[in-house]
Model the fold of this input.
Amino acid sequence: MSFVKRDLPLIILSACGLMLLLNFFVPTDIGNVVKAELTTWTVIIGCIGTFLGIYYMTISQWRLLQQTKTTIQYFYFATIFGFMFLWLAVGLYFPGGVTSPQYLWLQNNLYRNQSGMVYGVMFFTLSSSAYRTFTIRSIESFALLVGGVIYMLRQIPIFPAIWPGLLPLGEWILLVPNVGGGRGAVICAALAALVVGIRTLSGREATMMEVQ
Amino acid sequence: MYEEEKKDDIWEKLGNFDVRWMFLGCIVLIFVPMIWPLGLPTIVSQPTKDYYNALVDLPPGSILAVSFGGGFGALDEREAQFIATFKTIFSTDLKMVIYCQVSEGPAVLEYIIGEGTGLADPLKYGKVYGEDYVRLGYAPLGEVGETAITTNIRSMFSTDYYGTPLDNIPMMENINGADDIDLLWADYGACTTIEWYIRQWVVPEQMPLIITTLGCCAPMAAPYYPGQLIGFLSGSGMGTELEITSGNPGPGARTSDIKNLAILPFLLYLLLGNISSFGKKYMR
Done:
């Protein structure tokens, strides 16, 4: 891999990362200015990346369509991109853009309903996975069942109304055993992130460079 | 012969209970409280009390930043939280800057706090746009967007949601980053998003934080409470608690009633499954 493709991005990334890290531990006025400038550029790069993503996705879908010219494939392509460009066109064309009544009408009458429906359908899959999770097969799954069900019942007012002790018990499960396990998981994840960060800054993280 | 006997025994039958009956039961029971509300008492938990106190204890004129992640999909779970929180804020003398970290957020906000049409209408509380609150619209890029806002709001938003330059808005004159903000209310629907705020607001900026989220996300928020996180609401149940604490009755009680009954067939199904599993293992 060439200097331009591998080493130069790595040097830029490491320099930016080290400057931000330095400013985190030793804040200075100039460091804050650098941080603000770098963050602004991150936003710019991110926005360009979003447009590039849409462009590449469109090209990729179009190529896929050329390979499998079936009716259903045309239907999927036309539906997805039809709606995408409808939103784009309405957002750009009407005065006020995304604040225009036309755009809000689309959001409230089309997007909102399908979004709620998708969430509603999840009930069926979630109850199935909850059932499998809460079936006792071992001492660990029994502990999960007890903790999960008590917290679930605590969230639903009818059960604390029947047995008021459920509320403090549910709170205790949430704020004591769960916090103990949760903090352990957070510390582990943070240490792992630290290792990935150091590997990235030193150019040893392969996932960062394999962009060919 | 033995296999046929196994198929007919009670443990096997309990385990093979048709799941569609449970779904039907849930669907039917969703409608019952809509017709006959249960009106059950709600006990207020400590995280809800802390959440409410964090808002009302701020000195008048304090600046509250709102990172809003409410979507339409889970609105039934969140509506009570949103309405009660915004009504609480509008009842105080806080100044509020709102931005959205999901693209549908501005439309949801229009539904909740739209002037003249919203469920928590700012006009009813005498709040003036640009003086008491400002809406900045959608801030893309997730955690990077949050970083940009802590450092320089104008790097993300040169104008507000309605296209007015921020420098022309009186309230925004002295607000440009985390240094100018007194409290952050973060709302999100993806459980791990809590870490964005811990990493970008709480640790580097020492920002007091309160959150609203889905009922299932409370266990991931709890490790940060009551240290980095002052208070939190998760799910419609705690939304109902805030309605009671703040004295702003809303849709939470109805949603809680629906959950009260709709969960019962699932619990029954869970019980039958475990009895079946236990019976097959130990009673044969």
